[in-house]
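== Item description ==
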Amino acid sequence: MVASLLKMADLNWAVADYTTLCRRQKTLGVQIPYRCAVGPLNLLVPSLDIATR
């Protein structure tokens, strides 16, 4: 999928294949930061995006 996106963006960048990513997944430590919300969260959606879909 990443390779397809880069091709559409006309970028000639190297992308690891699926097998390489699966092998590295076992040793790759990924930490996603999480922030706890104190109050309500506001979600803004442009009305133009809703109207055209």
In short: The chain is about 40% helix and 0% strand. The chain has a mean pLDDT of 79.
